[in-house]
Amino acid sequence: MIGYVTLGTNDLARAARFYDAIAAEMGVGRMMEYDHFIAWGEAGGKPGIGITEPFDGKPATIGNGVMVALEAADPAQVDRLHALALAHGGSDEGAPGPRGESFYAAYFRDPDGNKLNAFVIG
């Protein structure tokens, strides 16, 4: 049902470095790029993620309670995504590990403070 997710940024170049690393680990690249917007994913594939400088010219802000979940291939990829996030200016919101019996996840924020998680079920 979800086509894509867009998050705001106040520094497009910094955010691009962060999401380039995350997308590369997940096997996708940039699929759209404009002066104030970049999107990663595959055209016609799974939902993608975009970052944008707000159209109204006001500063981008984070949504309290908003999180984007990235489906990983396996627990090792969850670990790598968490490490990549931290290495590219992100911050830790919960180290990789099991959450319950069949959910493995890691939580982090991008350089603008947007919350993401990488997870596998099973």
Description:
The protein has 122 residues and is an alpha/beta fold. It has one domain: 2,3-Dihydroxybiphenyl 1,2-Dioxygenase, domain 1 (Roll). It is 22% helix and 39% strand. It has two helices and eight strands. It has helices spanning 12-25, 75-87, and strands at 4-8, 29-34, 37-41, 48-52, 67-71, 91-98, 103-109, 115-121. It has a four-stranded mixed β-sheet with strand order 1-4-3-2, with helices on one face. Strands 5-8-7-6 form a four-stranded mixed β-sheet, covered by helices on one side. Strand 2 and strand 3 (37-41) form a beta hairpin. The chain is globular and about 45 Å long. The model has no long low-confidence stretch (mean pLDDT 95).
Q: Which descriptors would you attach to this protein?
A:
22% helix; alpha/beta; four-stranded mixed β-sheet; 122 residues; 2,3-Dihydroxybiphenyl 1,2-Dioxygenase, domain 1
Tally of individual helices: 2
Shape: globular
The total tally of domains equals 1
Mean of the pLDDT scores? Answer: 95
| Helix proportion | 10-25%
The radius of gyration computed from the alpha-carbon positions, rounded to a whole number of angstroms, is: 14 Å
Order of helices and strands: EHEEEEHEEE
The CATH architecture is: Roll
What name is given to the CATH topology?
A: 2,3-Dihydroxybiphenyl 1,2-Dioxygenase, domain 1
